[in-house]
Amino acid sequence: MKRFLLFAALILSFPLASTLDASTIHYLTVEGIINPVTAEFITNAIEDSQSGGSELVVIQLDTPGGLDLSMRDIVKSILNSNVPVVVYVAPSGSRAASAGVFIAYAAHIAAMAPGTNIGSAHPVAIGGKKMDETMAKKVENDAVAYLQSIAKQRNRNEAWAEEAVRESVNITAEEALKINVVDLVAATREELLNALNGRAVELSTGRKQIKTSGAVIKDVKMGVRLLILNAITNPNIAYILMMIGLLGLYFELSNPGTILPGVVGAISLVLAFYAFQTLTINYAGLALIGLAIIFFIAEINVFSYGLLTLGGVIALLLGSLMLFESPLPFMKLSLWVIMPTILFFTAIVVGVMYLALRIHRRPSTAGIGSEGLIGKKGRAETDISREGKVYIEGEYWDAWSDEEIDAGERIEILAVEGLKIKVKKTD
Fold it and tell me: Where in the chain is the domain with CATH 3.90.226.10?
């Protein structure tokens, strides 16, 4: 019996052993702008793969480009990795533009899917500002030297690297394979992994042969924190957060003590300012938006008959259009976001102004004595016989009556005695 149990345990251990021995491939999917969040995601994944003894890291890439500093962080992480890193531009219809070219060049193996393209790596000034000729030349030469140094280390086409930066050339996957910009073209992930099996790459620790046969693929996803941070770095999301923040502060300043709008507004503004660190902000646009809020708040106290509100709307519109000034389309605000947001913001402000104006024009009962209340009409809030409550012109009063009055019936004031009033039914 003991021998049988020992034999069964030995048989059952084989699948477990084979699973433990199987190599792991970390597979990342990166889409969108290259920003600090993307850089953190990729560098952390590469570090985890190194500490976990991974066989390979595959970065499936689709990007229009992004920030230079974030791109350089990713490139440094790839170049110094002791685990092979493959950059795979996929699926069909994707691209590796601008910063994506540098990341693809830095990979130990660069691959593309049919129907993808790579190129347009010319540097663009932060904020879309016009650089003088000398500075533009310096930035361009720096980018060329950087990309060519990576190309030399990876034995890729250095001449095309210079063209991609200086002339913003763009090529297809098939062309990239012909001129040694990428190492292979694969239509699917499975085809890519099969093509990688047996290839050898040079690492900082020496030469290594990649083994993908039987490997376990681990899809690496962004955590909740990175997903949130990545979402708010979108210019449109950052703009909406800023407007929510300003609207919250507007309500808090115009109605001190409401608390909730101020809290929501402060949190939204902090998140918006975090996003602004990764975006190209035009501070003139930001100043115009701040000026619009000042005009809206002033309108409540000054009553300029709409002139301050009109000025605020114009300042808000101009500031929104100027806020993110960049030649790159993915760094600009969409008009489909700006116009509805401004219309909603304006409607809220006009609504608050209308209510404030009604209160301002309401006849005051201060200083007219109790005689001024006699004859006023309202409604019974509770059933009234000897005692009850009534609602008259925005105020609740303790009341009594010589007749039975049901809650909800219309009443009229007959007399005032201290803080109580005598009422009767009325039509």
Answer: 20-226
Across 106-259, the runs of DSSP E, i.e. the strands, are 109-112, 117-119, 170-172, 184-185, 200-203, 206-209, 216-220
Q: Which residues contact 170 (CB under 8 A, 6 or more apart)?
A: 97, 117, 118, 119, 120, 164
Is the distance from CB of 195 to CB of 208 less than 8 angstroms? no
H or E element: which one contains 424? Answer: strand 420-425
Q: Which residues pair with 216 in a beta bridge?
A: 24
Q: Pick from 378, 41, 28, 76: which is nearest to 219 by CA?
A: 28
Q: For 370-425, which CATH superfamily applies?
A: Nucleic acid-binding proteins (2.40.50.140)
Cα angle 407, 409, 415 (rounded to 5 degrees) comes to 100
pTM: 0.71
CA distance 50 to 84: 10
Distance CA 347, CA 340 (A): 10
Phi and psi angles of residue 179, each rounded to the nearest 5 degrees, phi first? -100, 20
At 323-372, the pLDDT tens digits run 887 666 666 788 888 899 889 888 887 777 777 666 655 555 544 455 66
Q: Which residues contact 140 (CB under 8 A, 6 or more apart)?
A: 122, 123, 165, 166
Q: Find the largest Cα–Cα distance for the chain.
A: 108
Write down the CATH superfamily of domain 20-226.
2-enoyl-CoA Hydratase; Chain A, domain 1 (3.90.226.10)
Residues 311 and 293 sit within 8 Å (Cβ to Cβ): no
Dig out the tokens for 171 from the structure: 């090529």
